[in-house]
Amino acid sequence: MIVLLDAFAIKNKKTGVSQYSIELIKNMALLSKKTTFRVAIRPDLDENHLIYKMGKEFSNIRILKANIPAIGPLRDLKYLFFKNKLEYDIYHCLSSNLPLTMSKNSVVTIHDLKYLLFPEYLGKFGILKSIYLNAVFRHAVKKADGIITVSNSTRDDLIKIFAIKHGLERIKTVYEASFLKKGNEKKTADKYFLYIGELRPHKNIGGLIEGFKLFKKNCRTSGDVKLKIAGKTHKTFYTNIRNRSDIEFIGYVDDKDLYSLYKNSIALCLISNYEGFGLPILEAMESKTAVITSNRSSTGEIAGDAALTVFPENMKEIAKAMESLFLDKKLRNDLIKKGTERAGLFSWEKAAEETLSIYTEIYNRK
Fold it and tell me: Which domains does the chain have, with CATH numbers?
């Protein structure tokens, strides 16, 4: 079987889709030696990018370069000329955006639907962008032989938005897993709650900050406890909270430092209005760190009973959850124990097995 993997969304910088693509490709190549994986990437990737190293390491990975965007109308136009040059049995778009011209034996991974549910998160021209994405997703729903969603929540949203009544068996949830690389733990004297992720409107960072401020106001012993906010700032995000010594925006954190940042925190706080999966939850659990998360979309699904869940718009609940984990060591340790067990349920080997099973099912229909 020849599988063409559309990995044009892989970038030089670390992104969720890039990491998903790399981990899935690597684990599928390990599990299915007789399958040839043709990995289509953009030619502007650095020469030392991990995807090239994988191409040399695995005899069943073939790297294919093409100057095709990961998203946008130009992508669809270029695929008109690209697709006839390709040899494949299964085509898998790893980045949600199934090209309008690719429908034969096709699989697409839908990572989230935030831009359909909340077009305001797209910033300038958000409505127009949302209309385009709606067309792309609608095409995938109609034409793809297999649709992978990364959570049941995303699957349910997809079915609801597009009123899908038939062919529901095509839509399967395949969970992601942690990308965390454990390093040497660096101890710190700081006491802090932690947010990890890109700074975007749907992440509800403003609500997290307000909840933290209320926690500091209500909890007399909170003293020098801080809130550390780690991640790149997206152009759509804005906050004027820059003048409090107990709230630190620390920017992007390298992988080598991420484990210690989780490990030394009181708890991870991922209290988003919407998530397709919520990867930091698993990373925190792997680091033996307690979690406070939202009861919206996928985060409660991924966390299970191993986290405190709150309404993202309820500042009192956020503050109370922080206070509980700060004061109650037994509660924190109980959640850490449950979280460690919970994180063990998710693996890239399992994701690869389930994805290969989808390929095989479609291939055998031919």
Answer: 2-177+347-365 (3.40.50.2000), 192-343 (3.40.50.2000)
As a whole number, mean pLDDT of residues 26-45 equals 96
Q: Are the C-beta atoms of residues 8 and 366 closer than 8 Å to each other? A: no
40: DSSP letter: E
Contact 339, 287 (CB under 8 A): no
C-alpha 230 chain-centroid distance:
16
CB atoms within 10 A of CB 224: 10
Cβ atoms 227, 248 nearer than 8 A: yes
Span 332-360, pLDDT tens digits:
999 999 999 999 999 999 999 999 999 99
Strand 308-310 and strand 290-294: pairing?
parallel
- The DSSP-derived string for 112-149 is --HHHH-GGGG-TTHHHHHHHHHHHHHHHHHH-SEEEE
The CA distance from 267 to 288, in Å, is 10
The answer, yes or no, to whether residue 322 has pLDDT greater than 90, is: yes
Structure tokens at 10: 């892989």
Answer yes or no: pTM beyond 0.90: yes
Contact at 8 Å (CB) between 117 and 157?
yes
Residue 218 — φ and ψ, nearest 5°?
-85, -30
Is the model's pLDDT at 102 over the cut of 90? Answer: no
Full DSSP string of 55-122: HHH-TTEEEEE----SSSHHHHHHHHHHGGG---SEEEETTS---TT--TTEEEEE---HHHH-GGGG
- Structural tokens at position 278: 């919520």
pLDDT digits (tens, 9 = 90+) for 183-208: 767 888 889 999 999 888 889 999 99
Q: Calculate the CA dihedral of residues 19, 25, 27, 29 and round it to 10 degrees.
A: -160
Q: Are 338 and 306 in contact (CB under 8 A)?
A: yes
